[in-house]
From TrEMBL:
<dbReference type="Pfam" id="PF04222">
    <property type="entry name" value="DUF416"/>
</dbReference>
<dbReference type="InterPro" id="IPR007338">
    <property type="entry name" value="DUF416"/>
</dbReference>
<dbReference type="InterPro" id="IPR023381">
    <property type="entry name" value="YP001051499.1-like_dom_sf"/>
</dbReference>
<protein>
    <recommendedName>
        <fullName>DUF416 family protein</fullName>
    </recommendedName>
</protein>
Amino acid sequence: MLRNPIHLRLEKLDSWQHVIFMASLCERMYPNYHLFCTQTGFGEAAIYRRILDLVWETQVVKDAKVNFDLQLEKLEDCIPAADDFDFYGVYPAIDACVALSELLHSYLSGETLAHAVSVSETSIHTVAMLEMTEAEREMPDEELSALPAIEQEWDIQWEIFRLLAACENRDLDLIKGLRADLREAGISNIGINLQQ
């Protein structure tokens, strides 16, 4: 699996920063799931959206109460099975769900670092899978690492990391701004654009 120094650096962040990092990457994977739901009629993009919104809410609203066990159950009902669909779009949709599931598990376990690394890897995996699907062949990590799409994904992850790392304390304006920017952009890690 593609490794990056960011995975070591994440250790330096607090758990709230890990949560925002994961939520940001899920925000960037959401358009992949949304498009899949639109194309197939499977799942409910609105449920994914609501769960992700609840996560953001817990980070900006003091004492926001969310039943994450229940949210996880709702999400699990929305995850497509790869065998049920014979087109590529199912894979980015599954990855988006896996990432959000990791985020919910971090709330349930109270352990955020491992889940943050996992969400980072899931997002890069989505990009790598698209590159190999388009090239119609497997590629070794060295070759994948040199691809512009992979470099761009790492750059965006680093950008989010740096914004968070610069915060001494939980910065509500930064959190709200990051969320607004990602939602307004509406562009996924593989270039799916919700605005089009």
